User: What shape does this take?
Amino acid sequence: MKTRAAIIERRGGVLRIEEVDLAEPRRGEVRVKVEACGICRSDLHAIDGGEDVVFPAVLGHEAAGVVDGCGAEVERLKVGDRVILSWTPACGQCPSCVRAQPQLCAGITMSTGGAGPLTWNGKGVDRFMALGAFSEYTVVPETMAIAIEGEIPATHACLIGCAVMTGYGAATKTAQVHRGETVVVIGCGGVGLAAVQGARIAGASRIFAVDPIDTRREMALAVGATDALAPSDAMEVIGTITNGGADVAVECVGRSETMQDAFALVRPGGRAVVVGLPELGDRLEIEPVLLLFEKSIKGSMYGSADPLRDFPALVSLYEERQLDLGALVAGTRPLSEINEGIAETRQCPAGRVVVTF
Ligand SMILES: [Zn+2]
Ligand SMILES: [Zn+2]
Assistant: This one.
């Protein structure tokens, strides 16, 4: 079929809406009519050449839509099902999947190298994270489309596919915040605001949101942070209030300096969890003697997600009004205005700019 997609032809280029060819779903695949797709910082990274992307490419990996067609042997989904796309294939067969860690699936890829169902003028088009969801339609394995129920708007549901799962899961699943614990969240974009909410829902007694931008600090307070601090104040204030460090720190920035801050901000025995995507080749400097005080630092991939279980659970939390997704939608743009949406995302809004179809 023909569909319209936002194509980027070269590093640093603008996106152009073009008519492309999308192959029919093959065995085990579904075609999804995309309804909304958030713009993630990883998309900006890909535009800027910081990701392993082969141009031309279609970006977009935080999407919700409706199943529009099924290939042979599709078992879990049917036409008309509402779905959130997942960027782990959760293949079920690699060592990580066998260990029930689909967030570490060997099949996760930034780039399909141009192979796959999408072609433009007869040439293969890469699809970022094997989803390529800045497109009216996309074809994915059924394991990458998770059925959801309820009245949740697509502009909200799509955020579960990357930012919300990543941030919420980092707090609740990777760090396993317990009731009564103190939590620091460094960086309050879409992922950080979801981490704040994860900490709140897990019952954290005090949640310190750290961000240099005051609109983001205000939003963090609106979704559950008890304290909002500029980075220059964080170390002293948090050290004093917690009497020696927080139980948990979640780093949602992706810089070695903020990762070191996260490690420094937790108490002896505390857990620092790193979510932000660092530059390749970055190095972390921590004092190893602090490890003897049982401080830990751990990475978090996709919020330790098991999308098949976690996406519907997050939708339920939204429906129960515990998880505020509306607050995370900083704005919407139709596909034709995706470049404006990308420019807005570069301004570090408090939440996500969502592309609508
Ligand atoms: Zn993302
Ligand atoms: Zn796997």
User: Anything to note?
Assistant: The chain has a mean pLDDT of 96.
